[in-house]
Amino acid sequence: MRLLLVAGGLPEPLIGVPVPVGDGSIVLHPDLAYPDLRIAIEYEGDDHRDAGRWHRDIERRELFEDAGWRVIRVTSRAVFHEPERLIARVRRACEARRIPGAQ
In CATH terms, is domain 2-97 a member of 3.40.960.10? Predict the structure, then answer.
């Protein structure tokens, strides 16, 4: 997924960057991230279909969002069958998070 985004012209996202959330006592590590834009990209594989994992994923997303992060959830379909749409989704999120006039 990281290489796909780079091949699509996006900056290379960081892998597993630490993101303190809440009061800082919890640290999450998104699969990929653009920390300067507070964008987390999470790959949702088949193991995320388990009921317990699904509930933890919902709470995890809320923790990211409460900390001001935008979470993009990605499945294998997006990576392998709709890569252009995935690249466009990430690009739109990056553009929406840029501060006018900032580099």
Answer: yes
